[in-house]
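Hypothesis: this fold can be encoded by more than one sequence.
Test: take the structure tokens below, design a sequence, compare later.
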């Protein structure tokens, strides 16, 4: 009986964990093998090289953070405000997706191909916001501004360390959502 190979998905997940923890430079075959408790030989049965793994990781992130999120939003339905809010929560409050998303944003600052993929992902996210906000706001300039502000709040709040004068972050975010989606 042969030795079971480490599944391809395990390599991809280990790569995404490494990316989220330390950026793309920490996604190294030897380090991933060590974290999985295996030798690196099995890696090459699935991937030609590290670049192939990185591409697969980006494909999975894009599918999970856009396609899967949009599918869940559509499945669960609701009014436009609820759907826009749900999409943000599924993406930017998700313990799995958020750290990966933030690491990819940092990576995109130095890699034009990653920046182009991020642009594609963000454009799809903005399209949902425009569509949802456009159902209750007729002015295209205001739709664009509200969409941008909502997206900036969803991402930027993870970098902001400010206090909110006796209010919790959750209270302030809820009020911001009310203002943007009113």
């Amino acid at each position: 009986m042969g030795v079971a190979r480490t599944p391809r998905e395990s390599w991809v997940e280990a790569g995404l964990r490494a990316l989220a923890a330390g950026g793309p430079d920490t996604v190294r075959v030897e380090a991933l093998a060590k974290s999985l408790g295996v030798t690196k030989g099995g890696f090459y049965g699935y991937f030609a090289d590290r670049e192939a793994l990185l591409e697969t990781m980006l494909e999975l992130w894009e599918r999970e953070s856009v396609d899967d999120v949009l599918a869940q939003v559509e499945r669960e339905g609701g009014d436009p405000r609820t759907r826009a809010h749900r999409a943000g929560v599924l993406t930017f409050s998700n313990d799995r997706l958020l750290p990966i998303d933030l690491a990819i944003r940092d990576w995109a600052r130095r890699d034009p191909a990653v920046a182009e993929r991020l642009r594609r992902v963000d454009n799809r996210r903005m399209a949902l916001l425009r569509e949802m906000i456009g159902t209750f706001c007729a002015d295209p300039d205001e739709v664009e501004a509200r969409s941008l502000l909502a997206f900036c709040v969803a991402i930027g709040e993870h970098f902001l360390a400010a206090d909110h004068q006796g209010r919790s972050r959750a209270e302030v975010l809820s009020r911001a959502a009310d203002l943007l989606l009113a």
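The mean pLDDT is 93. Residues 57-180 form a domain with the Tetracycline Repressor; domain 2 fold (CATH 1.10.357).
Hypothesis status: open.
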